[in-house]
Amino acid sequence: MSAPEPPPTDPFLDFFPTHERHADAVARLLALLGPLDPDGDGPFGGRRARERDERDEFVADAVDAFRRAGLFEVVVPPADGGLADLPLIYQAGGLLSSRDLSVAIALGVVALATFPLRLAGTRDQRAHWFGRVRAGDLAAVGFSEWAHGSDLAANATTARRVSDAPDAPYRLDGEKSLINNGTEAAFALVIARTGERVPETDPDARRLNAATQSFFVIDLRSDGVRPVPRFKTHGVRGADISGFRLDGVLVPPDRRVGSEGQGFRIGRRTLEISRGGVSGFAAGQAVLALRLGCRHARERRLYGGPIVALEPVIAALVRAYVEVEVMSALALKTAHVGMYAPLSSRDLTCCAKLHVPDAAFRTIADLGLVLGARGYLRDRPFERLVRDARLLPIFDGTAHIQEGEVVAAAARPAPPGAAVAARDPIASIRAYRTAWRPDADLLRADKLDWPLGRAVEVAALHAACPDLGLAPLAAGRRVLERLLERALAGAPVTALDGTDRGRLASLAARTSAVAALGERAAFDLAGGGAGAVPEARRAALRRAAAGAGLEALALAAALAPEAADSIVDPEDRRSVLAGAADARAPAVEGPLRAAVRAFDAAPERQNLRNRDAPAP
Questions:
Q1: Which end of the chain is more exposed for a tag (fewer CB within 10 A), N or C?
Q2: Phi/psi at 246 (nearest 5 deg)?
Q3: 174 near 157, Cβ under 8 Å?
Q4: Which pLDDT does position 339 carry in this prediction?
Q5: Over the range 53-78, which residues count as b (16 or more CB within 10 Å of their CB) and which as e?
Q6: CA separation (Å) from 497 to 406, 475, 501, 511?
Q7: Residues 416 and 549 both lie in one domain
């Protein structure tokens, strides 16, 4: 009797593990995608992705393959006949983006379009439109307008009742621009103004205009819908970034999603959820870049040997490996927390949207130096990756928009230290990692016990798991919180200098990301996941924790040189410097170098070490 065939794996799954409840769906997805091969054929192969890119060709063949495989159910909630929960959506997005970000966008926008219906759709609306998604219809979301971007309160598209009769349809007029799937989608969720616009001269105009917005679902094959041609883009040339014009489109009232005036709230909540999903896309892109960099470093020979033996090259690969571990951990935590405590995850999705796309873009640029001229050639996969990754910090809210929210979240008072210390940090982590609420009320105001990796929380985790090396991270976070207290001093975040706000936000998001990696390692150590922490991950955590602590010391010296001694406690400084020395020791450096030398050297291997916990 032959042994059962082990489930397929993928380099992305080394960083973003599959939960047991998703094993079948992920196995089907991997069987469709095939190996992560930048030179592979087929609709998800790197060679085909380059052909589509060169021709500005929509990813129709990949969408058709996804449809034939019956995998559109991955974006539909279980209560509506699908499989979707946030961890699976994030994971599928990462796997797809590691092949072609254009494919990930085309299919990811369908997931985005489900959220307004999940938030406010009736049972009949969900049954009809989710049924069309399961059948393979592409969808779009009509937020953006050329003049207003995604400023939902400023949206100018109008929806007017044609008469006072209760069943009178709405007439929609306006244009949605820079819309993903704008011409290829079968239907769209559209925000439109159902009340009168208040002039901007009114001091309360923004609040009043937000209250006039409503949501509708529109069949894009309806009379009066005219396509706005695709835009020519720098990257993601296989995506359909276009739009549509609505000229007197009649929409029955049963296609309004939610009540009149709820559109702004529904739209804002949709973006708060979806922006976290961009971190999954970004992590997938970074994994592909790491694979290309490691493969090139093994195969390229200079000065009598492979360039992986050169110190600058191995150092760049180690940096990239650490960054991928950190960004993937934050994406993973954001997915789990978003399902466990939906409304309370807003701060975390903001951190993920700020940190992960930026870290991925910087990592890709760093690895481009490893590839040298080969990273600049259009017939090689890396050049497309660089162009595509530029979109990620812009997608679903630019980094500048996130900065204020991240600083405000980091500056909010933490729970009393005694209250945190009295909790069991592992139990708190296990709560969000094992909860399964795929059909939870996404507007429910849950209390989140373990939110953003504040200093008292990191210190409590360090006390519970001292061998993980989190002391410099806790010290760095304390420095950040003192900096924020001094910089704000009762003033609003908007009063901060723009550069200072950006640097503070970046450090806050980074420390939250490293804390997420610490929580993942602690969860595994406690038997909740893999049952052990791979040496390379443990080493990456030590390197990242020390790096975050050093960043905090440097920022204190830059922003408050005259007050550095009062901001940086001597014990915190010693902790950070000791952690930095430890992070360069052979016990840390060795596993990291071994990991990048071996990374995906045998892509056909079956690696189960990161299988997550069974469903509760």
A1: N
A2: -110, 115
A3: yes
A4: 85
A5: beeeebbebbbebbeebebbbbbbbe
A6: 15, 25, 6, 21
A7: yes
CATH number at residue 251: 2.40.110.10
User: Measuring CA to CA, which residue among 62, 58, 7 is closest to residue 31?
Assistant: 7
> Distance between CA atoms of 150 and 169, rounded to whole angstroms?
26
Q: H/E/C letters for each residue in 290-309?
A: HHHHHHHHHHCEECCEEHHH
Question: Reduced to 3 states, what is the DSSP secondary structure of residue 218?
Answer: strand
> What is the spatial distance between Cα 153 and Cα 193, in angstroms, rounded to a whole number?
9
pLDDT of residue 2: 46
**Cβ proximity of 243 and 93 under 8 Å:** no
CB atoms closer than 10 angstroms to residue 150: 19
pTM of the model: 0.93
pLDDT score at 527: 76
Q: 518 Cβ partners below 8 Å, 6+ apart?
A: 453, 458, 461, 465, 468, 470, 473, 541, 545
Q: Which of 295, 279, 182, 158 is nearest to 233 (CA)?
A: 182
In a shared domain, residues 216 and 318: no
Which amino acid, 259?
S
The span from the CA of 26 to the CA of 376, in Å, is 33
Count of domains in the chain?
A: 3
Residue 473 to residue 469: CA distance in whole angstroms:
8
| 365 and 495 both lie in a single domain | yes
| Cα separation, 393 vs 500, whole angstroms | 19
CA dihedral over 58, 50, 600, 285, signed as positive or negative: negative
For the record, the structure tokens of 427 come out as 């139990």
For 393-420, the three-class secondary structure string (H helix, E strand, C coil) is: CCCCCCHHHHHHHHHHHHHCCCCCHHHH
**Positive or negative: CA dihedral 432, 438, 441, 442:** positive
Structure tokens at 518: 């610490």
Alpha-carbon distances of 370 from 283, 310, 312, 594, rounded to whole Å = 19, 10, 9, 17
Residues of the chain with pLDDT under 70: 1-8, 414-422, 443-452, 528-531, 600-616
Buried b (16+ CB within 10 A) or exposed e, 573-599: bebbbbbbebbeeeebbebbbebbbeb
Domain ranges, residue 381: 269-598
> Among 95, 121, 113, which Cα is nearest to 273's?
113
- CATH code, domain carrying 553: 1.20.140.10
pLDDT at 397: 76
Same domain, 371 and 516: yes
> Does residue 220 share a domain with residue 277?
no
Last residue of a domain, one of 76, 103, 134: 134
- From 320, 319, 298, 318, select the one nearest 309 (Cα to Cα): 298
Give the distance, in angstroms, between the CA of residue 191 and the centroid of all CA atoms in the same chain: 23
My answer on whether 74 and 192 are in the same domain is: no
HSE, side-chain direction, 13 A CA sphere, residue 47 = 5
Residues 6+ apart with CB under 8 A from 450: 425, 428, 429, 431, 432, 457, 519
Same domain flag for 247 and 287: no
* Closest C-alpha among 444, 331, 439 to residue 82: 439
At residue 611, the pLDDT reads: 40
Q: Which of 262, 284, 302 is the last residue of a domain?
A: 262
Q: For 324-382, what is each residue's pLDDT tens digit?
A: 999 999 999 999 988 888 877 888 999 999 999 999 999 999 999 999 999 999 888 99
Element spanning 214, H or E: strand 213-219
